[in-house]
């Protein structure tokens, strides 16, 4: 099961290459983004280690089961509802952004609501399954897509269009103090580990995560490429002209001898599956946290999830809110809301990590 932990972390890292994180860092590239990346690598890696080590002390249990044994209902129920809302919001931001990307770069005549509704139905259908089925799908998607993504990144770095002088200029701003916005965005790259809040139920015989060293290594590589490659292609000032920076960067690349010359279409196809997988995982975790309040989390011998009707109610309600925001909020307003959510996520995530460390130590003392 160790590999599934790496898949969870890697899925979140790859998803955030496309959406808000590069934009948040590049906006503050002269005012603390470099130092924020360094701080986020330390904070994200340590948070991942302590949370994973702590929750593995409760083999076969998710947050609902852990909290039920440790806290009274007046604290446990509102806290689980809040965490479920945060997880579902994470997937919602991604699906809205990616629907707009597809509409803008593939066919502007696409009906945004119809496209978004299709993405939501696909993601909800996957999210309504059992945790094991979601993990198996995650493995398939990552194994198929990762080699092509690595190849695109290799082509980007080796391209003659990559201006390394622009990258060197950014090292002059290493001394700028980190900002809360850029730290909250950069640490989100590492936040895939937090899905162990539910998927720990499938890690019943795992005492510790092997290959954990891959988390800071992969996080450093993802942050470095997502930040420096767009600067190398568009320049230190020109990079500010793009909303979806990495999509525009991929459109600047060509494969002279490929069966598809424009990298953009390959890039969008690869990240379509990664993004929908991310939405499915976050909505699955959010629904399972909500179901935990009503003790509807068990799985039968045929790997069928109980309380699926409640999951679909959560998805219908969340999907309605997502469609409403797509109609009444434009891209700048959505980005502003997302930036505030990133700060709230950082605070709540670090609080959850501290809480799990305390619970694990208390359990060990009792044992």
From TrEMBL:
UniProt-listed InterPro entries: Spore_GerAB
Membrane-spanning segments: 6-26, 33-51, 77-98, 110-128, 134-154, 211-233, 263-286, 307-329, 341-360
Predominant location: membrane
The keyword Transmembrane helix belongs to this UniProt entry's keyword annotation: yes
Membrane is among the record's keywords: yes
Membrane topology designation: Multi-pass membrane protein
Superkingdom: Bacteria
Pfam family of the protein (one): Spore_permease
UniProt entry keywords in alphabetical sequence: Germination, Membrane, Transmembrane, Transmembrane helix, Transport
Entry's localization field: Membrane
Protein family: Belongs to the amino acid-polyamine-organocation (APC) superfamily. Spore germination protein (SGP) (TC 2.A.3.9) family.
Protein name per UniProt: GerAB/ArcD/ProY family transporter
Organism for this UniProt entry: Paenibacillus gyeongsangnamensis
């Amino acid at each position: 099961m160790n590999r599934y932990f790496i898949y969870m972390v890697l899925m979140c890292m790859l998803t955030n290459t496309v959406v808000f994180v590069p934009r948040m860092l590049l906006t503050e590239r002269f005012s603390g983004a470099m130092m924020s990346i360094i701080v986020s690598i330390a904070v994200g890696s340590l948070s991942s280690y302590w949370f994973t080590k702590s929750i593995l002390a409760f083999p076969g249990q998710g947050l609902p089961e852990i909290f039920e044994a440790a806290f009274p209902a007046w604290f446990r129920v509102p806290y689980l509802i809040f965490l479920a809302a945060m997880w579902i919001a994470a997937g919602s931001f991604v699906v809205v952004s990616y629907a707009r990307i597809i509409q803008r770069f593939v066919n502007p005549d696409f009906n945004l609501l119809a496209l978004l509704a299709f993405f939501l139905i696909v993601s909800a259908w996957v999210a309504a399954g059992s945790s094991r089925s979601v993990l198996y799908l995650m493995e398939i998607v990552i194994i198929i897509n990762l080699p092509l993504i690595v190849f695109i990144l290799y082509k980007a770095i080796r391209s003659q269009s990559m201006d390394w002088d622009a990258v060197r200029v950014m090292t002059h701003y290493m001394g700028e103090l980190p900002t809360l916005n850029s730290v909250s965005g950069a640490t989100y790259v590492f936040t895939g580990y937090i899905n162990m809040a539910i998927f720990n139920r499938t890690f019943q015989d795992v005492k510790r995560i092997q290959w954990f060293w891959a988390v800071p290594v992969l996080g450093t590589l993802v942050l470095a490429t997502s930040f420096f490659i767009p600067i190398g292609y568009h320049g230190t000032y020109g990079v500010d002209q793009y909303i979806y920076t990495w999509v525009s960067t991929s459109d600047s690349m060509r494969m002279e001898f490929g069966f598809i010359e424009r990298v953009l279409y390959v890039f969008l196809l690869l990240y379509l599956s990664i993004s929908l997988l991310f939405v499915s995982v976050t909505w699955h975790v959010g629904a399972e946290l909500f179901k935990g309040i009503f003790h509807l989390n068990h799985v039968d011998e045929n790997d069928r999830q109980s309380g699926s009707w409640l999951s679909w109610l959560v998805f219908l309600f969340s999907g309605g809110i997502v469609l409403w925001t797509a109609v009444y909020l434009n891209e700048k307003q959505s980005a502003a809301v997302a930036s505030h959510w990133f700060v709230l996520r950082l605070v709540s995530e670090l609080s959850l990590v501290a809480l799990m460390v305390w619970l694990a130590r208390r359990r060990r003392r009792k044992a």
